[in-house]
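Below is how a single chain appears once it has passed through the pipeline. First comes the sequence as given, then the structure the pipeline wrote out for it. We keep one example in the README because the format questions we get most often are answered faster by looking than by reading.
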Amino acid sequence: MFVRRENLKQYIKFYPVVSTLLSLNILVFIITSIPIVGNQLFNLGIGFNLLISEGEYWRLITPMFLHLGFMHLLFNMFSLYLFGPELEQLAGKARFLTIYFLAGFIGNVCTYLFFEWNYQSVGASGAIYGILGAFGALVYYTRNFMPQLKQIILPIIVIGVIMTFLQSNINITAHIVGLITGFIIGMIYFHPKRIAAWKKKKNKFKVV
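Resulting structure:
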């Protein structure tokens, strides 16, 4: 299900929203890597609680497009590349964007509310955990006729949560809140009234 076999052209055609998000994050990382100018742009977008409290509310959104180093970017973009396409196809472009941005945004809002004034954070992890949360809702609704989805998704979610608490310098709040937000939105989008549509797409899943 989460094995990508498309070439680049097919990937962009089939998953335009995920492709756009990947491109934006990579482009922003390249720009912010430019000496002096890049540092200024990075500092302008970082989630900094003190500056948010002073009215710079764009910092509740911009951190989703900033990453602290190449490995940080690589991990988040690989996760988006891997898990995003199936959700974009199932939920549709607009709903996928809603899940992604609300999970990231609410995660950043809670980071602002729960941490001290000097706390700073960047990364798309909250939004990506929102994708996993939405899959969790789909597992709940399809558990009787798509058990293979449960076998794939639940271990991924469990491992993701465990790694959140084991790694250092991780915004645990953004991860957990993003996961919960994605699950709640998924419970709305994947209501049983739409199960018939998911059944039609069942044959498209390939479990490897």
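The mean pLDDT is 90.

See the next section for the split statistics.
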